Amino acid sequence: MSLRVQPISRDEHLAFVEGLPSASHMQIPSWGDVKPDWRAESLGWFDEAGLLVGAGLVLFRPLPKLKKYLAYLPEGPVVDWFAPDLVERWLEPMLAHLKARGAFSVKMGPPVVVRRWSADAVKAAIADPGAHRLRDAEATSYEPRAFDLADRLRRAGWQQTEPGGEDGFAAGQPRHVFQVPYEGRSLEEIHQGLNQQWRRNIKKAEKAGVKVVRGGYEDLSAFYTLYTETAERDRFIPRPLPYFQRMWTALNAEHPDRMRLYLAHHDGDVLAAATMLTVGRHAWYSYGASTSHKREVQPNNAMQWRMMCDAHELGAAVYDLRGITDTLEDSHHLLGLLRFKVGTGGQAVEYLGEWDFPLNRLLHKALDLYMARR
């Protein structure tokens, strides 16, 4: 029998998520407040006994001049992805509900891991002239059920979104991320897992007098100054300052410690800044920024280590450094960022990626062409 899918209140949604070890920060009610160009709805899946067994944050983006919407569930929904009757029992009622809501296309991002590569495996892959992308290197572990899930989605008419651009960063959420597992590890063990360069740089920053402090809403402007410099240097389009201010207000209104800001100071200068998000036992380094000025005092390593320590103190099971490129070419401008993250001694993780279901093929195709031109 299909589950019943219907809108739920923010409180019901939040209570469901808080009963889990973790969920994506993009699948909590407050994330809808961060995205004012989208209309947000909390969806619930109910079983025969009326029990809430799944939840999802849906963001609706209207098509200009038409009352039709793209329905997007970033890194969600939070359902039983390995249920044998996933398509019929969980996904079909969701599609029916979203179609009735005016959706012409549905995009979702199953939070399902496919492969993991240890830090050593990634380092070996970078050094191997025959490996051009992460998938060319032997993974340290696989999730066989993920391949079965991908087959079932394809057979049901879902289409896997190909990562956009040369760097593997799609227009949606990153398919490849870098994570440091914390479960059952002491802080000393996590420190030992850092490579020599990282440990040296943390010590160097300490000796140079770098101080990492937590900031508040009023410090977002200092973060933003560094962020725009980083955007120019790393060739990406920066988000506007009000985005981060809205993020701070919305997320911390839901939970007082949902979003943190860290700043690395040295002799009166702010050299680096970053935001950290926490949901349950999952902590994310979400946005980072730094200046090219005084790089020799290693503010980035000092700041990351402080965030890693704080995440451990909060009881995190994983510290997530978010997106990495899956391109291993020496000439690639994002390879330096991958090397930096590999120094934490964590793992490169590949998720199942994002999937589309065209409810109206003509409008879906028109959206594809529009996105390609952008």
UniProtKB/TrEMBL annotation:
**Single GO term (MF):** aminoacyltransferase activity
Q: Does the keyword Transferase apply?
A: yes
Whether Ribonucleoprotein counts among this entry's keywords is no
Q: Name one GO biological process term.
A: regulation of cell shape
InterPro entries per the UniProt record, alphabetical? Acyl_CoA_acyltransferase, FEMABX, PG_Glycine_Bridge_Synth
Keywords, A to Z, come to: Acyltransferase, Cell shape, Cell wall biogenesis/degradation, Peptidoglycan synthesis, Transferase
List the Pfam families.
FemAB
Highest taxon listed in the record's lineage:
Bacteria
The record's similarity note reads:
Belongs to the FemABX family.
Q: Which PANTHER family match?
A: LIPID II:GLYCINE GLYCYLTRANSFERASE (PTHR36174)
- In Swiss-Prot or TrEMBL terms, this protein is called Peptidoglycan bridge formation protein FemAB
